[in-house]
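The authors assume throughout that readers already know how a fold can be written as C-alpha cells. What matters is that the chain and its backbone geometry are given together, residue for residue. A single example would do more here than another paragraph of explanation. For illustration, here is how one protein appears when written out as sequence plus C-alpha cells.
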Amino acid sequence: MTQFSKSVFSPLLIVAALAGFSLSACGKSGEGSGDAQDDRPVLVTNPRLAAQSQAREFVATIRPRVESDLGFRVTGKVVKRFVQTGQKVKAGEPLASLDENDFRLQKEQAEAEHAAAKMVVAQALGDEKRALALRKNGWTTDATLDRIRAAAQEARGRLQRAERALELAGNSLNYATLRADGDGVVTQALIEPGQVVAAGQTAIRLAHSGELEAAVALPEDFAPLADKGAATLTLWSNKAKSYRAKLRELSPSADAASRTFAARYAILNPDSAVALGMSATLSIAANGAEQMMSVPLSALYNQGQGPAVWKVDVDGRLQLAPVKLVRFDSDAALVSGGVAPGDQIVVLGVHKLEAGRKVRVMTRETL
C-alpha cells in the first residue's frame, strides 16, 4: 500500500480497531460477570504543557511624554513667527509675537493714572495732617476731620487700584510675546503672520525634551491585560533591535469611534535611533502563574455545564473534569484547571461516555 493510502485509512483503522474491541467485549459479556460489560476501550492521550498566551502585537507611534499646546494669553494680531516646524528651542526662547501698539497704549494710560493717583494721595495726606493739627487746637470739628480722613482713605484705595492696573498692563505687554515653556522641538505651528488669534488659542505645539513613549490603541478585550506581561518595542526602520517598554498610562474610557483604549508605554532603554513620530510594533506577552495545558479539540465535552474533558482515573474509570477554556489553536485547545501533564484524557467518542464507567485504555501506539 502506498504512503497516501496509509495516511487516508489510518483513522479508519483506529475506528475499526475500537469497534473490534467493543464487539469482543460484548461477546465476553455474555459469558462473564456484569463488570465485564463496562470494560469499554477508549483512545486516550496525555495533555501537554503550553504557553499561557500568544504575544499580541499592536501598531505604535513614538511620542514625547510631555507635549504642550502653547497659546497667547491675550487677544491680538500676529506680526511675526520666529520658529518653524521641527526646530529645536530652549526654555524662554520667543516663538511668536503680537502687535504691541495697543498694549503699549494701555500701559501708558495705566502709568498716567498711577501718577495722578499718587498726587491725590499726597494731597489727601497733607489735608489729613493739617486737619489733625487744627482739631488738636480746637479750631475745627470732628465731622470735618472725619471727612478729610475718608477722602485720604479713598485716595489710598485709588492708588492701589492704579498700581494693579499698571501691573496688569505690563503683563499684557509681556504676553504679546509667546515663549517656550521648556526645551524641546516644535512639532506643529498653527499660526501665521497677519492672523488674529484669541486668548488661549493653540499657536505652537511643543514636544518637550526628555522621555519618549509608545502610543498605542488597545482593544477592549486586551485592555485589562495591558500591564500583565513583558512588553517590547521594535522600530519599523530597524527590526533587528528591540526595546523594553512598560505601561505608564491607560485611558479609563474607550474612544467613542474606535472603541479602543489609548495607552502609553514608557521606553526603558531608548537610544539615538528612537525619534519622534516613528512607527513601531509593540509586542506584549502575558505571563501568569496559572498552568496551561494543550488538549486535542476532540477531547472537549460540553453539555451546557461548561467545557470539560473525560479523564481516566487510577482505577480505570471515567471521571468528568471541568476545565477553563483559554483559547483555540489550529488543532488543539488551551485549557487551565482540571488536568495535569500525567493525566490520561479520552480523545474520541466523548459524547457517548458516562462518569464512573470502567474502561480499557488504548493509545495510538498500541493500535
Notes: Residues 247 and 265 are 4 Å apart (CA to CA). Residues 1-36 have pLDDT under 50 and may be disordered. Residues 101-136 form the longest helix (36 residues).
